[in-house]
Amino acid sequence: MTADPSGLAELYLRHRAELARFLAARTGSREEAEDIVQELWLKLNGADSGPVANGRAYLYRMAQNLVLDRIRERSRRGARERLWQDEEIGYQAGEAMDARSNPEAEAAEREEVALVASAIAALPEGARRAFRLHKIDGLSHSEVAERLGISRSGVEKHIAVAMKHLRQRLAD
Fold first, then answer.
1. Could you write out the DSSP letters of every residue in the chain?
2. How far apart are CA 38 and CA 41, in angstroms?
3. ∠ at Cα 88 (83, 93), nearest 5°?
4. pTM for the whole thing?
5. Which tens digits make up the pLDDT trace of 39-58?
6. Burial of 95 by CB count in 10 Å (0-12 exposed, 13-18 middle, 19+ buried)?
7. How does pLDDT run across 129-142, given as a tens digit for each residue?
8. Which CATH architecture describes the domain 8-75?
9. Quick one: which of 48, 50, 45, 23 has its CA closest to 35?
10. Does 102-171 carry CATH code 1.10.10.10?
11. pLDDT tens across 53-63, in order?
12. Of 69-78, 102-111, 117-126, 136-145, where does mean pLDDT reach its minimum?
């Protein structure tokens, strides 16, 4: 193992069992928690990280992000499999699948998209730009900060303002 200037490897080893329990509670599976703990170790070993102010919190955030990555992947996989099954069933029945099979659902979806777009457009300028770059374009907080020429803390504040505004606007 190489020298770890931030001490994350040492913290990982010290808190490994605690991380495994945390992840088991999040995933509902000890086996999956162990897989994630191992994946976390691999990420720590392969990453060059600079100084970290709160290493324990950093480890837990990394672990939570790995859980979220797995949930997203499962969701995408499920959607692909459903689409594939729907296509197979449609072709077996001798008919092409109609993409517009549920007009009511499509109208509701269009209405929801318009509502969200309107809520985003109504955000304050800084919050809207930070929100779009982070949530829509998928940039990290650091990348957004660099692009907007503000601090990472500024980006976090803009995102918090945007989320609060959107929750209020969409709840109305």
1. ----TT-HHHHHHHHHHHHHHHHHHHHS-HHHHHHHHHHHHHHHHH------S-HHHHHHHHHHHHHHHHHHHHHHHHHHHHHHHHHHHHHHTTSPPPTTS-HHHHHHHHHHHHHHHHHHHTS-HHHHHHHIIIIIS---HHHHHHHHTS-HHHHHHHHHHHHHHHHHHHH-
2. 5
3. 130
4. 0.47
5. 999 988 876 667 778 889 99
6. exposed
7. 998 898 888 888 88
8. Orthogonal Bundle (1.10)
9. 23
10. yes
11. 888 999 999 99
12. 102-111
**Single-letter amino acid code for the residue at 76:** R
| Alpha carbon of residue 47 to chain centroid | 20
CB distance 34 to 70 below 8 Å: no
Domain borders along the chain are: 8-75, 102-171
Structure tokens at 82: 């459903």
- What residue has token string 């594939």? 84
Token pair of 54 as six digits: 């709160």
